[in-house]
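Repro:
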Amino acid sequence: MRLVLVAQWIERDVADVEVGSSTLPEDTLPHYKMRELKDFFKFLSSRILIPSRSISDWEAKNFSLQKVKLPNNKLSKDLEKLCREKGGVLTFGEFISEEMFGKNGFYNTHGEFGKTPVDSLWPKAIVNFCKENNLDSIVEVGSGDGALAKETLKMARKMKLNLKWMGIEINEVLLKKLQKNKFQNFFAANSVQKLESQKSLTIFPYSLDSMPSEMIINNAILGIKIKDGILEEVLLSEKDLKQRDIRFKNNIFKAKNYVFDFSTWQLHKNQRAYLPISGFLEIINYVKKMDKNSKILIIDEMKPAPKFIGNYHLGTPRILNSMLRDYENLELAYKNTGDNLWYFPMYIKPLMEFLKQLGFTDIASDGEVKTATLLKGEELGQIGPDSCRAVIANLSNKTVKSSFKIPLPF
């Protein structure tokens, strides 16, 4: 009897949802992913114990623009100062960059760097790949503590290959350690500008997803205002964008003389999408330093393709030190500002299409463990599910385009 009453009550509440309201997107319920449907019905069920909860409470958590008191006073003051310097508002990417890399941000206060086992899995694979492709120069984007470089160069000497390694690291703490603990044939720098154009293997080992995405909602770029310790989400004005030399209209993003066309990403009202603009621009910067027939190796966790564009948010970031990983609850994330180890996994299809438009050919993608094992010349054992991917490609056309059409992720 109780189950029947609950089912009838849930059915009534679902029927009461106003489709196309100011906070809930059109066509809401039929398109939610299973996880979000469970969240919705869990919320409805909770009203048995707390009848005062309303549909608007659930909408506010998932779709409304957020306004949150920041508990981290030092970081809050830094963010407020940066906000003033940027004309009173930050892009979401600028906010995340300060939260992660600022003086009082995560990396400078926690001593955690999200280390992965690339230094144990990849050295022999990389050396074999370089020998097969006559490469003697490696550029590593995001060297971290230098472990991958150190182990690979050691393996190269063992396998009679003279490799040179340039490690790029923007984290000042890690860069100082790299420059202090130099080893043979290794050089460290903080910028792609220190590189000379050359034929090389450029490796992104779990570094692309550390580059903050920009967020769009309702055909606008989302911004962040911080004043008196209060964070508030806003929609950036044309003036705000012009100050940054950015243009955005009809889901077409123009920045730094490049155009990224997301027009096929037709979002519903209040649906958010996180666009990997900084990651794409970073790849372009390194491609400019590559000679023809250079190779690229991207090792990263990738987001699975959604089954459909639906109404829930696309490209949601993840927080490494959170049990939830996919972090759709931005209110809670903002309340934990300074304690979040954010990362922004890409969808594989848009990334591979972007590489193709950049002039890369022979683009291959497979699980990280499988790819490394095969490159090492070892037999494949039993390999479980692998959400981490390795993407390898050859730069056959050096001409860098200025306009890119980014397809839907499925």
